[in-house]
Amino acid sequence: MLGSVLALHSSFPSPSLPSNIPIDFKFKTGRTIGKLWSFVYTLWLFTFSDLKTVLIPTLAFGTAAAPDDSTAHVSQRILWIWLHLLQFCLSNQCLSPLEDATNKPWRPIPAGRISVTAATWLRWALLPACLVLSVYYDVLTASVALSIGTLVHNEFGMDSRWLPRNVCNAVGYAAFNAGATYAACGDPCTPKSTSIAAQVLNALVILTTIQAQDFQDTEGDRATGRTTLPIVFPRSSRWAMIVLLTAWSTLLSAYWRASAVHAVLLVLSGAAVGSRFVLYQDAVPDRLSYRLYNVRALCVAPVFTLAE
C-alpha cells in the first residue's frame, strides 16, 4: 500500500550518487529517494496552513506550562503535536476536496499529489500510530480526546454548524495543549495549578473567538453548505471580535495579575487584532488577521508563566 501511495506523488530531483555505482542501481535508488521526498513533502503540505496556527502556539503553550524543565522535551512535543495535527488535516481534507479546490488549491488532494483514497488510508493508519506514541509519552487521554474530536468534527459533520464547530475547536485546542504540556514530562508528572487554569481559560477563549479562522474561508464554506458565524452573522460577528478579544485580554491580565506593561500590551494587541476584522473585510486581509490572532495568543503564555 505504501508503494501505491508513493507512486501517486510527483517526483523531485534526487541527490547525485557516486559514479562507481551501477547505472541501474543509481536509477532505481534515485527514483526511490525522489518518491520518498515527494511523499514527505506531501505530508508537510497537508499541515502547512496549520503550522503557524496550531503547532507553534501549542508548542509555546506546552513549553510554558510544562511541569518539568520547559525546554527538555521540545522535540517530543513537536513530534506529538505534528503527528496529531497530520491526523486531523488528513481527515478534514479527505472530506472537503471541493472546498480546498476553492480556498487552498495548493493542498495535496486538489493539486493532484495524492488521491482521496490514499489519503483516507493514511488518515486511519495514523490513528493507532498516534495512540501508540501517546502511550509511550504518557498522554493517552489527550490523544483519545483529539481522535474523538477529529471524528466528531470531520466524519460526523459537526463542523458544518457554527456552535458545534466552535465547541469541537475548543476541545481540540484543549487536547493539543494538554498533550504538548505533559508529553514525555517524566515521572512523577505533577500538573501545576497555573497550567490547569491556563488550559481551561484558553479553551474558553477558543470557544468564543475561534470564528477568527472562518472569515477568510466564507466563499468556500458557502459552496459546501456550512453555516459558520461569519456567514450567519456577517456584520455582528466581525464587531464581536473587537469586544471579545479586548474583554478576554482584560480578564486574563486581571486573573494572572499581569504587570501594567504586559497588561497594556495584551489589551492593546487584542483590540488591534479585533479591529482588523472590522476594518479589512476581504479574504487576503482576513488571512493575515487570523495569523495575528495566533501571534497574540503567544503573548498570553508569559502572563501565566510569570504568575507562578
Structure description:
With 308 residues, this protein is mostly helical. It has helices spanning 2-6, 23-65, 74-95, 97-103, 116-137, 140-155, 162-182, 193-209, 218-223, 229-232, 236-255, 260-279, 283-298, 301-306. α2 (23-65) packs across α3 (74-95), α3 (74-95) runs antiparallel to α5 (116-137) and α11 (236-255) packs antiparallel against α12. The longest helix has 43 residues, at 23-65.
Mean pLDDT: 85
Terminal-residue CA separation: 50 Å
The number of distinct β-strands equals: 0
Largest sheet: none
Q: What is the helix fraction of residues, given as a range?
A: over 70%
Order of helices and strands: HHHHHHHHHHHHHH
Helix-and-strand structural type: mainly alpha
Provide a short characterization of the protein structure.
With about 300 residues, the protein is mainly alpha-helical. The chain has helices at about 1-5, 25-65, 75-95, 95-105, 115-135, 140-155, 160-180, 195-210, 220-225, 230, 235-255, 260-280, 285-300, 300-305. The protein contains 14 helices and no strands.
List its salient traits:
disordered N terminus; mainly alpha; 308 residues
Write the layout of secondary structure elements.
Blueprint (H helix, E strand, L loop, with lengths): L1 H5 L16 H43 L8 H22 L1 H7 L12 H22 L2 H16 L6 H21 L10 H17 L8 H6 L5 H4 L3 H20 L4 H20 L3 H16 L2 H6 L2
